[in-house]
Amino acid sequence: MAINAYVGTPGSGKTYEVVKSVILPAFLSGRSVVTNIEGVSQSNFIDYADRLNSKRKEKDQIDYASLGSILKVTDDDCLKPNFFPYKGATEPTIAKNGDLICIDEIWRIFDEKGKIHDNHRSFIAEHRHFVNEKGQTSDLVVINQSVANIPRFIKDRVESTFKMTKLIALGLSKRYKIDVYSGVRLFKTTHIQTIQAKYDDEIFSLYKSYDGAGVEQRIDKRVNLLKSTGFIFKMGFALFTIIAGGFYLYHQFSGKTENTDKQADENISKTEIKSAENTVKQKESVNNVTVHSNNENREFYSEQKPNKAKDKDKGLSQKWRIIGYLKKQDNNLVILSDDKVIRYEYLSNFTNEGNLLTGYIDGYRVTFYSGQTIKKEKGEEIQKWSEK
Question: Which positions are tagged coiled coil (predicted)?
Fold first, then answer.
């Protein structure tokens, strides 16, 4: 397996993540783990297995015989020539073939400017060749605050880097994120994925993050974005805008608006009717016309049903002519006039013959050019032209 690096500022959760996602799964799967992480002990991991068994059903119980082992070492042990397995070893090594080796604060073990022992170089360069009787190869995990001061000999062989960031800027002191990169270059092009995670007190019981007991405190709370006055103002303004926009859209598309539109259409129709009626003097109603009165206008609606008068064409009407159209309450109407009375007929009583709208009233053909007034005007025009 390749070498993995876990980096992050102090308190970001890099050691926590190694214990949770690397050491614990390896221990539960039966692997031997060698580490210098403070507070780690095999008894802590066995106690954790006990707590898991107490929450599981009998068929899901952890078999203690299948558990691995935890070997806690010191920084000085890591510096010994026989710490790592190496080619041509003539004496027993602290870490064995197939072990998972996790070194915390690698800068304390291998100084960037210091020389790495040849035995250590052998393991770092060829750790995949050290296999145990189970067929497991050795793995190396290094933990550091930054990839910058990891020795180059190790850095060149790192396959994946996990960068931990505590989400204190969002006020989430119990959460952190993991950015996974390919290699040690923490660029956008090498970024693989981002994982959101939460701290679990059960994991903290497996190791000791500090050399001594202590409580982490914030010396400047302005780092918390949620406590920023500017951020709070912007969020409040954005919330107000969303609510106001919602009310506006609701008002625009609600039923009240539809009723208002219908009322406006009715008012427009009444205005059109009043304007048409003012063009003539209404003195009396005519046959087949019913008069309906209200406070301001007099509206005339024909009760005549669609007829078949075309079969008995009596010729062009000398009385009625078409003067316009009107749409009222979803009814399409044709406006007729005899210069005295306005009459409304349903548009369905009329047909288009060519480009001419034609209908039949009392057997007579009614068009835009029918009616006595039109004929009289045409006669006067013909007479004028003849006199000239």
Answer: none
Give the pLDDT confidence of 251-278 residue by residue, as tens digits: 878 755 555 555 655 555 555 555 445 5
For residue 344, the SS3 value is strand
Distance (Å, whole) CA 35 – CA 95: 9
Phi/psi for 77 (5° steps) reads -60, -40
Q: What is the pLDDT of residues 150-177, one digit of tens each?
A: 999 999 999 999 999 988 755 567 889 9
Distances (CA, A) of 240 to 158, 225, 228, 249, 338: 50, 20, 18, 14, 62
In the chain, where the domains are located: 3-217, 281-387
Task: Give the position of tokens 């013959």.
Answer: 353
Residue type, 97: N
pLDDT tens column, 174-204: 889 999 999 999 999 999 999 998 999 899 9
Distance of alpha carbon 191 from alpha carbon 208, whole angstroms? 30
Q: For 216-242, how does the pLDDT look when each residue is reduced to its tens digit (9 = 90+)?
A: 444 445 545 555 566 677 777 888 889
Six-digit token string for 87 = 């080619």
The DSSP result for 195-245, as a single string, is: EEEE--HHHHTTS-SSSS------S-GGG-GGG-HHHHHHHHHHHHHHHHH
Query: For the residues 377-383, what does the mean pLDDT come to?
Result: 58
The pLDDT mean for the chain works out to: 79
Domain 3-217 has CATH 3.40.50.10750: no
HSE at residue 194, side-chain half, CA atoms within 13 A, is 7
pTM for the structure as a whole? 0.57
CB atoms within 10 A of CB 278: 11
Strand ranges of the sheet holding 331-337, from the earlier edge strand across to the other edge: 321-328, 331-337, 342-346
Residues 186, 163: contact at Cβ < 8 Å? yes
pLDDT class of 370 with cuts at 50, 70, 90 = confident
CA distance 161 to 181: 5
CB 336 within 8 A of CB 321: yes
Sort 200 into a burial class: Cβ within 10 Å, 0-12 / 13-18 / 19+: exposed
